[in-house]
């Protein structure tokens, strides 16, 4: 189990001797956004048709949206982080083009 999965499990279980940290809540949001993206776009089968240039473009697009308004900043940062996770997953599956 990865460090992120461990943090997510702790955040979701409510168990432990300490309150859930803000960082854990943010990671939970990133993982939820990642799940949403997979559901919306079709998961690895869809992701694997993209190139590294595609992933860079998607991330840059959402970074640009983050600076349009202060209200959008945080939401777009969560999307950027989830896209970065998707790109790393794509890379690890060996889909580099």
Q: How many beta strands in the DSSP annotation? A: 0
Q: Major β-sheet, in short?
A: none
Count of helical regions: 5
N→C terminal distance: 28 Å
Tertiary shape? globular
- Mean pLDDT, all residues: 87
Strand content: under 5%
Instruction: Note the run of SSEs as H and E.
Output: HHHHH
Rg over CA atoms, rounded to whole Å, is 15 Å
Write down the domain tally: 1
Helical content band: over 70%
Which structural class do you get from the secondary structure elements? Answer: mainly alpha
List its salient traits.
globular; mainly alpha; 97 residues
Describe the structure.
The protein is mostly helical and 97 residues long. The chain has one domain (3-92). 75% of the residues lie in helices and 0% in strands. It is built from five helices and no strands. Helix 4 (52-66) runs antiparallel to helix 5 (70-92). The longest helix is centred in the C-terminal third of the chain and has 23 residues, at 70-92. The model has no long low-confidence stretch (mean pLDDT 87).
